[in-house]
């Protein structure tokens, strides 16, 4: 059960409206609807009744809300305890959305400090919304997130409302990630694919991340919600995702290839054609907070990595 999703459910119960709760929590209404639907599916019960006046809790929903409020209070107490007892021994804690370009930067920091006594590094991978929550409550000191350009205002308001600073990194067009031997590549080459060409193939996505911006594609012909795909395969980690795509005709959506993607997994990335959106990446951290040198070293490394990726992207897009 995702603690951040529980907070969204409590907000819907408080406002009696998914639309009003979405505005208050700085996410889109479709994303919040997906979250509530996933909670109901996980619980195996109807928690809310949708009416023309808004939403009302069912009897089961009222009991569910009571337990959610207890859980959130205890989690807040636990986070307060952790922040109060944390020492310099926890040298680096990072939360990130699941992109190998970021994790490779974390791995490089680990390599540099592998012989330092008492080093403790932590890496958490989750959705953008949960990464923001991690940095807000102090679970992580640095977060690296992504979001669609059309959601930039709402995402940055969410970040600012939590007392966080945002460091922009880069913006990329979405890519289709699929097996290097995929039949579509034999027909179309590697110049790119249209989203319509993928409708008969299985879409691979991470479990629970219904609100992930990358699954809502805005094309020249209109919006496409990949959560509504006819074939969906759910996974929990990147390695499992890559191996699955390599052995099937399934696909996922991401950005340009990471180092060794083709040689290690026989999986490549080609541009998603006619997409009018870009994926924006950025770093978040608390404002005016003491920075450890190791944290700044990681931030600098991530900035250089994404600047290099942006330069490569710009070169590919040149006529």
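Sequence proposed for the structure above (319 residues):
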């Amino acid at each position: 059960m995702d603690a951040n999703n529980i907070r969204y459910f409590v907000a819907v119960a408080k406002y009696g409206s998914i639309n009003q709760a979405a505005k208050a929590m700085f996410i889109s209404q479709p994303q919040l609807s997906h979250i509530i639907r996933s909670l109901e599916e996980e619980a195996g019960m109807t928690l809310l009744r949708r009416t023309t006046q808004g939403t009302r809790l069912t009897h089961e929903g009222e009991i569910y809300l009571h337990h959610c409020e207890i859980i959130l209070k205890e989690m807040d107490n636990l986070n307060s305890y952790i922040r109060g007892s944390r020492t310099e021994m926890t040298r680096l804690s990072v939360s990130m959305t699941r992109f190998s370009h970021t994790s490779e930067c974390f791995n490089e920091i680990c390599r540099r400090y592998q012989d330092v006594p008492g080093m403790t590094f932590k890496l958490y991978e989750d959705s953008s919304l949960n990464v923001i929550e991690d940095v807000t409550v102090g679970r992580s000191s640095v977060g690296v997130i992504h979001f669609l350009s059309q959601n930039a205002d709402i995402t940055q308001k969410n970040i600012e409302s939590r007392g966080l600073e945002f460091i922009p990194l880069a913006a990329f067009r979405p890519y289709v990630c699929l097996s290097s031997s995929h039949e579509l590549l034999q027909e179309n080459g590697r110049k790119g694919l249209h989203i319509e060409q993928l409708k008969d193939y299985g879409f691979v996505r991470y479990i629970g991340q219904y609100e992930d911006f990358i699954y809502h594609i805005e094309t020249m012909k209109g919006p496409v919600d990949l959560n509504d795909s006819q074939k969906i395969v759910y996974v929990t980690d990147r390695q499992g995702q890559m191996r699955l795509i390599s052995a099937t005709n399934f696909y996922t959506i991401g950005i340009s290839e990471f180092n060794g993607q083709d040689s290690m997994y026989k999986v490549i990335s080609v541009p998603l054609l006619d997409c009018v959106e870009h994926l924006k990446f950025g770093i978040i951290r608390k404002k005016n907070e003491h920075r450890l040198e190791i944290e700044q070293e990681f931030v600098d490394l991530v900035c250089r990595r994404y600047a290099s990726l942006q330069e490569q992207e710009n070169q590919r897009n040149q006529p």
